[in-house]
């Protein structure tokens, strides 16, 4: 209930009424043509000083985020729950109802209704009935614009509602000026799009959705009358948050007014009064933690898009301005999120680990040649809800576990980094047939006093000497993931060239120690090729997508198009791509990457792989690489076709010393392969283009040397030699790294 009016408030009303009544009486005593002339001249003077917000409305509106089909709503962003709609999309009964309720003479006055003002003054002074304002719809519109104009200061917005003679006269002048420049229908449309209807709903579109769960074009007579009745006292009359009986009484008043104006018949009014109010309260989601019900996994993508948005100059000069634009600009954002690919990725991530598992499988999918991010999934709820004690990031978190940033540096991706060594070697002119007799352990030039060193030098080892040792070229060195071959190859090329290659393909060093190593000592980062730097599934997928796109790197992109509230396209959403690799180099690396997944290179040089199940699952040309960090702390697989690249990394986001174990690698491979299968479903089968002979070289292998009988300790990978797990780091690697970085 509104509070009783104080004596001072009543006294002010009397004084204000006296002043305005005097003006009304004085105007009424003048000849009609003289009054018209005064009003016209005043209106013309007022139009010169008309605020920009009244000339071109810039009211806050809700922004909508959709999936890549342009139909599936992800979420909305807003400070004010409001969306503009044209008059043609508002039910005629709604237009008639608000005119009958608020300004019956709307279509006959010129902005200010002197008779209405006088009638309201008399009612307010005598205290009879409900306090009246005498404001026309046009005057109300002026007040609503000025009190919500985001370009005005807080003091200016507050002044727009002050009970002063000066403010009221200015409101009349502005309203009269608007009536000289805008049609009645345009004023009515603007009014309906800005009026507050209670329960957080600004404008008729938000109100129709909030109360009845429908579009304003679909409102019935009874519904329209109820909404129109809310405008006078939105919070008091709201049937959701206020007094429902008062809302019904106000509805009856509106219906009677509509009958008095001839908009409806008395019989129609009576029938609408008899209708029960059937509400379907619908709250609009707001932000990434309010994504569509049952799809809280979309929140991670939403957050990635929001972070991208805050870096785009098209939405403002500062982060604050860009954030405000997202929440107030009324944008329609069609994102790159593919609902089907996302669904499969989420199913696979949660199949490997449940939501409450301390370990996680973040998965990212990227489109080669555009950088468009198709999916970002992980076995966590994107939510601010509390977690059980001791569970920092499970089952709820808003940390960017898939894309990195904030407190998330990423995860070691193991031998997937061998791709960067191979690319650097190919770029340096070394062909795929570059051979080396890979030993079980390789003494290097890097000093080390860790246990297991070779005469004071670091000497990495192969995880499975029986299957990995021997003469290798890039094809089977990559297919079998031979550590000693790739450490040797990195030494031939220069470790700094390998690090630079990774950065060129978008690998970001978020961990301070990795960034320092890359900047200050890259030429001595011998273990880099074994994947000791932290990365994310998104970075890794996009790096491999660069190879899939034959050397074209595209910045990861979360949007397809952005349309402003005025219907104009914003110049963002176009892929930002550049050539970073020679086409033939990328094709050669792809040819070798056919080996790990159980397919054959164009030159028939594959002879074993660590992820041969991928060929069977995907069923079309595919390439990729497995990776395991030391002691199987993480397990990774990244695969690609010409149309998609997908990466998944099994890890414990809260404890890098917790080993996920070698057994999960097969499940990670399976999960990523099934996401690839979904992403390419229905697309034409595309093959990879074979590299030129120049980068193939002479793939002639020497006679194989006798294979020594491995010791029991060396037999780490029993089983089918055609598919071996890539779990191998030398046991002294972490100690060696700590020594190098300490």
UniProtKB/TrEMBL annotation:
Residues 685-742 are annotated as: Disordered. It comes from the Bacteria. One of its GO terms (molecular function) is penicillin binding. One of its GO terms (biological process) is cell wall organization. Residues 73-258 form the Glycosyl transferase family domain. Keywords: Carboxypeptidase, Cell shape, Cell wall biogenesis/degradation, Glycosyltransferase, Hydrolase, Multifunctional enzyme, Peptidoglycan synthesis, Protease, Transferase. The keyword Nucleotide-binding does not apply. Transmembrane segments: none annotated. SUPFAM superfamilies: beta-lactamase/transpeptidase-like (SSF56601), Lysozyme-like (SSF53955). One of its GO terms (cellular component) is outer membrane-bounded periplasmic space. This is Glycosyl transferase. It comes from Micromonospora globispora.
